[in-house]
Amino acid sequence: MLNPRNVTASAPGKTILFGEHAVVYGKPAIAAAVDKRAYVSIQEREDKKTHVTINNIGISGFLNIEQGTIELDNGENNEGILKYVLIALMKTGSKDGLEITINLDIPVGAGLGSSAAVTVATVKAASSFKYVKLTRDEIAKLAYQVELIVQGSASPIDTILSTYGGIVYLSRDAEKIIKLDIDSEIPLVIGYTSKRGNTGKLVESVRLKTESNPQVMIPLFNSMEALTNGAREALTSGDHKMIGEFMNINHGLLDAIGVNTDELSKMVYIARKKGALGSKLTGAGGGGSMIAYCPGKFKEVIESINEFENAFKLKISTDGVRLE
Ligand code: PMV
Questions:
Q1: Which atom of ligand 1 is nearest to the CA of 157?
Q2: Is residue 2 part of a domain?
Q3: 175-234 pLDDT tens trace
Q4: 246 part of a folded domain
Q5: Binding site membership of 284 for ligand 1 (Cβ less than 6 Å)
């Protein structure tokens, strides 16, 4: 039996426009919240068990908040996003006896921050369910701790974007988060492949290259930093040509550090052929997604990518986490 009181919170996914990987070496990055959200609804169960259903990806199971365990309904051990939900419930001091329903419009495993969006929305829903009002800063911090516990290492980019929304310029330590005042109608297309990259492994492979050849790698990160800072100015002044050019150079540098793939390249180059002013892989690489800057050429770029992968027009979410 469920108590009729229902609390729903939602949070957006994200895409990195400039500076991925370099951000791990203390360089700045620019990222945008994507208008695709994770919705987390919580109701009370009278039997004191905690059950979670993630619609869209067909995962459900019982969590035991007190003992920190997960038992999937289908008996498999593919816990995925449920781990983030469990740790978020533990971190917010939630008690067992919850029915949680999650709806995702964010494609999972595409580098669009679905796990952070679920984490942030769970922190918000679970705290509001207990009538506790957390500030955005508190939500971002708690959600980042959850990501660190589940993933071992993570940058705070995803949880910051899911919490605050908008377009943000930030440094690795996230001490400096600057919301950029850019038209949210920025002409970007996102293409994503079903092949997912493993962020941890990619970051590690870049670290090994950097350790063995710092004299080659560090200048590449310095160039990425210059690109991110240049892009910040170009985005603010609306200099389309320069934004596109910076994306192309950034893609080349990401290729140079070894995180590009055939699938990503194919989307990146077809977008340029169809009129994008610039395009690059986004996020960790190794699969996942790319972005294309294409004023006036959306239809052509989206259609050509959709012939072999998936693409959509990016709408920036100016709203971060919110109660529904
Ligand atoms: O692919 P994503 O969305 O997980 O982005 C990873 C971004 C990196 O800079 C490669 C790693 C990080 O933690 O910042």
A1: 14
A2: no
A3: 678 889 887 788 999 999 988 888 888 989 999 999 999 999 999 999 999 999 999 999
A4: yes
A5: yes
